[in-house]
Amino acid sequence: MKELSFLMFAAAAVILTAALLRNLFHQNPHRNFFFIPETTILNIAWGMLFYAGYGLIISASLPYRILFGCLCLCLSVHLAYLYQIRRFFSGKKSLIPLSHIESKINRQQNFDKQHPTYSARQALKILGLHSSALQEQDTVPNRRTQLLETAQKQNLKHPYFAEMINKACKTLL
Hints:
This protein has about 170 residues and is mainly α. About 70% of the residues lie in helices and about 0% in strands.
């Protein structure tokens, strides 16, 4: 069982590293600088944290313990970051400063000037929805309304936010 757990962890680590390197070194025309984390992303991060913690517990040598410990720390910080962004767009109090959200919107706006159309996957990430949400016709308009109301409630007054949300909704409808 330990070997299977480690194999699953290693496969996930390789896939996530490949995705990270692809995003760093390849200009993807459907890249997201702004996104709202959805449940699947959080579940994957929790799973990675679980396996990294398991690796920390079962590793016998000090270098592996340090490696897994650092990985657990990084994943914990990343999970907290994703959770705080999600809280912000749920209308709850968040530790993420408004200036950080606005800088992510600025980066997406600059990227959208070069790549004006959204793919369906990119639009789903911007809205914070899973692809299964498209099965119900009311989901996208309801999400649009919710995000625009939350932006007003959270004092997010960036002029491109509403345009970005409307453009993502238009892509999905």
